[in-house]
Amino acid sequence: MIAFLFWPLLACLILTGMHTYLGIHVIRRGVIFVDLALAQLAALGSTIALLFGYDLHDPATYFFSLGMTFVGAAFFAVSRQRHEIIPQEAIIGVTYAVSAAAALIALDQAPGGAEHIRSLLVGNILTVSSAEVIKTALLYLGVGLVHYLYRKPMITVTFDFEGAVLKGYRVRAWDFLFYMTFGLVVTSSVALGGVLLVFSYLIVPALLSLLFSEKILHRMAIGWGIGLGASLLGLYGSVLWDAPTGASIVCAFGLIFFFIVVGARFIKRPTQIER
């Protein structure tokens, strides 16, 4: 059993490690659903590849997906304004809805469309291969290195946008680099675990870590612990009840989210009497 779950668990840990960090950026930027939008664009790229006769696991399909996420990255970087008239979250929502609708239209024309929809939503991380895990780990390592080398402007643009503008940072260029590397991660993650799983790893650990600390390193450590717990619980439940693995892990994140949010409400008593 342990040997059978080794590569799926390792894949989950890799997703946790990278997505928790990116999730902290996403939440601070106030673009919670950018992951879903870019993941859906990646899915749209995959469906377009299907229409051209490529298999989901064909390398060409990956580049179709990557191309679509880069288009989204450029659009989101350009659409971010210093004084917003249209909230960027609204732009992201429209992008998600349109790309999802376009993917459904494309899948309706592709053979086995229903099965492809299921695969894009929840993936099949239980059957992930060692080669896929190693390839994803190396890609995430490269993205992590880029973020480490350029951590000062990246963090400044995310956490102090006005300050970055005043300091003369080329904020659109840094935004594009952020969304481009984010798109690289999302494209590989969607192929590995599906849209819903990727969203859960990105948002839930980073969001819950806010309840315990505001420091980035502390939040990353807390987020990794939450991601590990959800991964173990979801994998165990998937094997125990013979349930879809991706959906099981997403539900495990939901359970952890519920109990931590409710628990925090009772542990952190208000300092003043509510009226």
Which terms summarize this structure?
275 residues, mainly alpha, ABC transporter involved in vitamin B12 uptake, BtuC, 12 helices, disordered C terminus
Description:
The chain is mainly α and 275 residues long. It has one domain (2-267): Orthogonal Bundle (ABC transporter involved in vitamin B12 uptake, BtuC). The chain is 80% helix and 0% strand. The protein contains 12 helices and no strands. The chain has helices at residues 2-29, 34-51, 59-79, 88-109, 113-122, 130-149, 151-159, 161-166, 171-193, 195-209, 216-241, 245-267. The longest helix is centred in the first third of the chain and has 28 residues, at 2-29. The radius of gyration is 19 Å and the shape is globular. It starts with a helix and ends in an 8-residue tail after the last helix. The relative contact order is 0.16. Mean pLDDT is 86; it is low at 269-275.
Query: Ranges with pLDDT <50 over ≥5 residues?
Result: 269-275
The structure class reads mainly alpha
Helix and strand pattern: HHHHHHHHHHHH
Work out the oligomeric state of the chains in this entry.
single chain
Helix run count: 12
Q: Which fold does the CATH topology refer to?
A: ABC transporter involved in vitamin B12 uptake, BtuC
Question: Can you describe this structure in just a few lines?
Answer:
Helix content is 80%, strand content 0%. The protein has 275 residues and is mainly alpha-helical.
